[in-house]
Amino acid sequence: MIQRVRTRFAPSPTGFLHVGSIRTALFDWLFTRHNGGAFILRIEDTDATRKVGGAVGAILDDLRWLGLDWDEGPEVGGKYGPYIQSQRLEMYREATRRLVAQGAAYNCYCSQERLEVLRAEQIKNKRPPGYDRRCRNLAEAERAQKEKEGITPVVRLKTPLEGQTTVHDIIWGDVVFKNSIIEDLVLLKSDGYPTYHLANVVDDHDMQITHVIRAEEWMSSTPCHILLYNALGYEIPKFAHLPMLLGKDRSKLGKRHGSVSILQFRELGYLPETMINFLALLGWSLDDKTEVMTCEDLVKNFSLERVSKTAAIFDHEKLKWMNGVYIRKLSHDDFARQSLPFLEKGLPNEVKRPLSISYVRQVLPLVQERARLLMEVPELTEYFFTDQLNYDSQLLLGKDMTAELTVWALRVAKERLEKQVSFDAASLELMLRPLAGELKLKAGQLFGALRTAVSGRTATPPLFQMMAVLGKECTLARIDDALRRLAGM
RNA sequence: GGCGCAUUCGUCUAGCGGCCUAGGACGCGUCCCUCUCAAGGACGAGACCACCGGUUCGAAUCCGGUAUGCGCUACCA
């Protein structure tokens, strides 16, 4: 029987989840869902010094927002728990004891100061930096002496001095490492916590992970992990290392590249489906043309074989474009619901809160295809909500239009509008379009003046729809205001 | 410095020996549509497939070297 796929996403709670980590989580998740496997979330909080309060909750929120659900892990439990490494310390210590007992690992009493001096000297002499294995073959008496001095040792893996270790990677193929360059890495730190390497191997085994899918930066330590699996007598999982995500300057994506935390994207008004789709395309592709895909499509088509090996630069421009695509795909209801918080927050203070939902529902369809970020919605719709328009009166004067001509056109339009009974877009167009001809004006000249009068802007949604939403009273008042402005010019 | 990996339009990518005078997308430009802005449509500019050799009747695709970039080289993950 074929083993059921089990993968895990194992973030450290050292701060916000950034898009690189999310991409890793996404590929893990897509692969798992594609194969009908189990996706496990594990919190790797083994660095007590870097732990950030509240980070775990934030990670969970972000994953939930994106729809990356986990089958085992914090809050949902599972039979291989606990899923937080700081609660599994005894298991790592037990593994360490076993390794030391069988001679595969040893206590190292070297101080961090000594290691630093050693490294500095090695670098100075242009030698490869690394631990010199001083404690590897300590005599029993020497060890007893160190213990008596009260030094708490770290435990290091005794790696083979010769031979080679091959990593079979689904994405990279076979990569061979000489054992001689593999260090005696620390397994258990002096504070009793395991290092990533130990905790990872022990947990992946205990949780029966079948596929270790993680970022490329782990490639180099994978041979060590294999050695560890072997020493512990564990079966080796399959590995797949994902290419890195880079910033515009080709360096590892980080804070200085602008928004990188998934929360920031959320606050800017990116949709989760955009993030999923876009991130899926960074290092993976379906074919030579398909780009916009639903999450279901991605699950259906995802395969590690089509993941590339080259690092990708995160392009905000394309992300924005794609978000526009997804915003346009939203139903009017969804768009309104999702925009509402942005409006409440982004509209000027003088606008009365709470906003009228029914009015918001009328306004938003007019800007849906014009927004690329939800955050742009308040700015795009502001004049629908404010009482007083603020604009440069010069804008009232369109191309080839004098102030006199504009006043005249607006007056006539106003008179007709006052008599207008049905104030819907179609009726308004039926009335106003012929009026332009009647006044011997181009449609653009009449409509342009009205557009500015009614919105204070030169770029807006279609005039008649806008007037219909604004309503008769407001439309007329704004035309009056425009006429007053023109009188003062 | 050492080890590993990578290198196709500015960017994301297709390509796995002949279909490639290299395809798609973002961005950019022009035009169409049009009451403006978007959206949509059409067209275009943009890649000597990093470079140099080799294998082959034939190479972006295979091999070797060089260059460049990236990752790792912590009692961080």
What does this molecule look like?
- Helix 7 links the parallel strand 8 (211-215) and strand 9 (238-242).
- With 489 residues, the protein is mostly helical.
- The strands form 5 sheets. Strands 3-4-7 form a 3-stranded antiparallel β-sheet.
- The protein starts with 5 loop residues before the first strand and ends with a helix.
- The protein is built from 19 helices and 11 strands.
- 45% of the residues lie in helices and 9% in strands.
- The structure holds one RNA strand of 77 nucleotides.
CATH class of the largest domain: Alpha Beta
Largest sheet: number of strands, sense, barrel closure: 3 strands, antiparallel
Choose one word for the global shape: elongated
Count of discrete domains: 4
- Can you count the beta strands? 11
CATH A-level architecture of the largest domain: 3-Layer(aba) Sandwich
The percentage helix is: 40-55%
Average of the residue pLDDT scores: 94
Low-confidence stretches: none
Number of helices: 19
Distance between the termini: 86 Å
Strand content: 5-15%
- Please state the structural category: mainly alpha
In the sheet with the most strands, the strands line up as 3-4-7
